[in-house]
């Protein structure tokens, strides 16, 4: 299997392939979001076929009076016939390295199956987040079930107080 880490300067070449993969795993409306927050993508290929992906984004967030640089991991998807091989864990490790390299102190993800991410050091996110809901086109606030967080070196543990997400979730 071939693992590639693609940064924001080179991602457009992979956009159509990524979208096809995401739609095949998650459904018709799943697409890669390329914006100023995009940091990198991890692509895993087997026999020249894309079998797993993950995306990383970064922005400044706030809890109480504390601002921190945060990463958001999204689009972690493994083709059904390749699940159970540890590919999601490989993707997470590579995405985290990208995020830490740009100064991120906390990483968030929103999981369909949270147990997959516990072994990578993620814990349940118990704080409510204030975020922009792209589907409803308005700001929302609630505790995401399946929301997870990881604190990296230099980051202070988060409390149960509201986190200002300063944008959407991926």
In a few lines, what is going on in this structure?
With 170 residues, the chain is an alpha+beta fold. It has 3 helices and 10 strands; from the N terminus they run E-H-E-E-E-H-E-H-E-E-E-E-E. Strands 1, 2, 3, 4, 5, 6, 7, 8, 9 and 10 form a 10-stranded mixed β-sheet that branches.
Task: Describe the SSE topology.
Blueprint: E1 2-7, H1 15-26, E2 38-46, E3 49-63, E4 66-78, H2 87-101, E5 106-110, H3 115-118, E6 123-124, E7 129-133, E8 138-142, E9 147-151, E10 163-164
Parallel strand pairs: 4-5, 7-10
Antiparallel strand pairs: 1-2, 2-3, 3-4, 3-10, 5-9, 6-9, 7-8
Descriptive overview:
The protein is an alpha+beta fold. The protein has 3 helices and 10 strands. Strands 1, 2, 3, 4, 5, 6, 7, 8, 9 and 10 form a 10-stranded mixed beta sheet that branches. It is globular, with a radius of gyration of 15 Å. The protein starts with a strand and ends in a 6-residue tail after the last strand.
